[in-house]
Design a protein that fits this description.
The complex is a heterodimer of chains A (62) and B (512).
Chain A: H1 12-23, H2 28-46, H3 49-61
Chain B: E1 20-25, H1 29-40, E2 45-48, E3 62-64, H2 65-73, H3 77-83, E4 85-87, E5 89-94, E6 97-103, E7 115-117, H4 120-132, E8 137-140, E9 144-150, E10 155-161, E11 164-175, H5 182-186, E12 192-206, E13 215-219, E14 228-234, E15 238-244, H6 251-254, H7 257-268, E16 274-287, E17 292-293, E18 296-298, E19 304-305, H8 314-332, H9 340-365, H10 371-383, E20 442-446, E21 457-461, H11 465-472, E22 478-482, E23 488-492, H12 497-506
Parallel strand pairs in B: 1-2, 1-11, 2-8, 5-13, 11-18, 20-21
Antiparallel strand pairs in B: 3-7, 4-7, 5-6, 9-10, 10-11, 12-15, 12-16, 13-14, 14-15, 16-19, 17-18, 20-22, 22-23
Helix pairs in contact in B: 1-4, 1-8, 2-3, 2-8, 8-9
Classes of the chains: A mainly alpha (62), B alpha+beta (512).
Chain lengths: 62, 512
């Protein structure tokens, strides 16, 4: 499976706002913890090791 | 009840000493097992140990199915199972809630259970008893090796005894002298790998308890805030408790009973126990780059050390013995010494597998500050609520036999019996298949007759549900060449004498 890098969100602004809202009022530590849990949840959702490797690669390069 | 230590008799060595074929340094489980393996294959050895008692403290306690099969081949497997506490389920808790469990043997039809907990001192006691039945083995207690010199002809060890020093001349030396191997130091060899900054308190306590025969591991339990803990049941009402202390803990202070006892009281919930043995340990996940150094061969902890949470130390050591014994016996009987390179290659491969698993467990249990700890805590936080996170919880990936990378895996026969793996056990009308394998090469003819092959014993077996599931799959019949260490060397749906003969010859080739 190839990592989708083209736009894939139906409503990018709303989704981005939801991400910010989830972090609202959190200390930096709590935010880190939330992000860590979110990464794990999404990682499992993707499942495919090759796609994840590409995602890690893209994130590291950005 | 506490174990009754009985010192072994120290017999003065008559000097000058006779020349030996094999000298084994260290009478721990690895050294003793190797002496037995060699003796069962007709090769004499002398075992030199600097002490004259079995292991002080329980130390290695979790013996895997594979170790029990090896110990059974060496004559003490049934005794270990009978005395030990059999278990197969492990449970992992986070803050009081169970977040993960595993069953290591869901499939019946094997002689040996997944795991038996048995204190190392019992295993050593049984191995010594077995050694004493074998005239080819000489055990020399209070013989401390203080010097080593080797040339192309052999090795000379300088040995200190209560009566003074002597020289021990031998063709081969096997260093089974543990994690702090003196021989390793004398040869100037270093370990490569990681040293973890973590300390654990380890204690044996005697108590009447009603704990199940399961491995139980806690992350951040109420009784030991922020740290982790492990509980194992052993025979004689002895329980093993491991408590994470953190790197800042003072090991001398922490092993004092006035510090230990309150911690254990909190862990078990009462004070009705007796402290039997306490130690404090740190982690290492390291190995020698090579296990064979001319005529000195390393096996067990002298060659590789791992953190203890996968039970990969003692079990890995016995698998070293398994891979070395028949090859060294072959060399003593005139085979090409280059076949020892195959021991080196296979066991370095296996050590890397053990090191990888142990390092990953250690990372999870003792994460570095920052991202490592954040992700670890995230896994634990999610594990109670979302099943996907549970397999990420790592409190130890327990020892399984390594499958050596041998060719011939893609022939349509079951993967679990592919070349390089341990020949799977199966029930027979009388006894077990595993009891008929080992010490010499054997051709298994399953559901068919085998062609005659010179110098190769054969065993013909009918198709049973277990033989079909574990060895045949959709194939109507198959031939399996089994090594003296019960590893599948090669297999065919059908093969002629020449093909099988070539595979038998290849066992004694350095490339196999």
């Amino acid at each position: 499976m190839t990592l989708r890098t083209h736009p894939n969100l139906a409503d990018p602004d709303a989704t981005y706002a939801a991400l910010l809202a989830a972090h609202k009022g959190l200390t930096p530590e709590e935010s880190h913890a939330l992000n860590a849990r979110l990464v794990l949840v999404l990682m499992n959702h993707i499942g495919d090791a090759e796609t994840l490797a590409q995602a890690l690669d893209l994130a590291k390069k950005a | 009840m506490p174990y009754a230590y009985r010192p072994f008799p120290v017999v003065p060595v008559k000097t000058p000493d006779r020349r030996h074929k094999v000298a084994i340094v260290g009478a721990g489980p690895v050294g003793l097992a190797l002496a037995i393996d060699l003796a069962q294959q007709g090769v004499a050895s002398v075992v030199l140990d600097d002490n004259n008692v079995v292991s002080v403290g329980s130390r290695a306690i979790c013996w895997s199915k594979r170790s029990l099969e090896i110990l059974d081949r060496l004559g003490i497997g049934e005794k270990c199972v009978e005395k030990g506490v059999t278990w197969k389920v492990g449970r992992t808790y986070h803050k009081g809630q169970e977040v993960w469990n595993f069953d290591l043997q869901p499939d019946p039809g094997h002689k040996m259970p997944a795991f038996v907990n048995l204190q190392q001192y019992y295993v050593e006691e049984y191995l010594v008893e077995r050694c004493l039945q074998l005239p080819l083995i000489e055990l020399r207690w209070k013989n401390r090796v203080t010097g080593v010199a080797q040339d192309t002809q052999g090795v000379t060890l300088t040995v200190e005894t209560p009566e003074g020093p002597y020289q021990c001349h031998t063709d081969w030396v096997v260093a089974c002298d543990g994690a702090r191997s003196a021989l390793r130091g004398m040869l100037g060899l270093d370990f490569d790998g990681e040293l973890f900054e973590e300390r654990f308190l380890i204690a044996d306590i005697e108590m009447k308890g009603d704990f199940p025969s399961e491995r139980r591991f806690w992350f951040q339990p109420d009784f030991h805030p922020g740290q982790s803990a492990l509980l194992h049941k052993q025979p004689d009402d002895i329980y093993r408790i491991d408590l994470q202390l953190g790197w800042d803990a003072d090991p001398e202070l922490e092993r004092q009973p006035e510090r230990v006892i309150p911690r254990i009281e909190k862990a078990v919930g009462h004070a009705d126990f007796r402290l039997d043995w306490v130690s404090v340990y740190t982690f290492q996940c390291r190995r020698l780059r090579n296990f064979v150094h001319d005529r000195v061969i390393f096996a067990g902890d002298s060659a590789h050390v791992v953190s203890p949470f996968g039970a990969r130390g003692g079990n890995g050591g016995l698998q070293d013995v398994d891979a070395l014994g028949w090859r060294l016996a072959g060399v003593v009987k005139g085979r090409d010494p280059a076949i020892l390179r195959a021991y080196d290659r296979e066991r370095c491969f296996a050590a890397d597998e053990n090191l990888l698993n142990s390092s990953r467990t250690t990372r999870f249990m003792s994460p570095a500050d920052g991202a490592e700890r954040e992700f670890r805590d995230a896994v634990l936080a999610l594990a109670g609520r979302a099943s996907f996170a549970r397999p990420l919880v790592n409190s130890g990936r327990l020892s399984r036999p390594c499958t050596y990378p041998l060719p011939g895996a893609d022939d349509g026969l079951p993967q679990g019996a592919r070349p390089g793996s341990v020949a799977p056990d199966a029930p027979l009308p009388a006894g077990w298949l595993i009891e008929l394998l080992g010490d010499q090469p054997l051709l298994l003819a399953l559901g068919c007759a085998a062609p005659e092959v010179p110098d190769l014993a054969q065993l013909q077996l009918d198709r049973t549900p277990e033989i079909i599931a574990r060895y045949l799959g959709p194939a109507p019949h198959a031939l399996y060449l089994i090594r003296p260490d019960q590893i599948v060397a090669a297999r065919w749906i059908s093969a002629d004498t020449e093909t099988i003969s070539a595979a038998l010859t290849a066992l004694w080739s350095p490339l196999s």
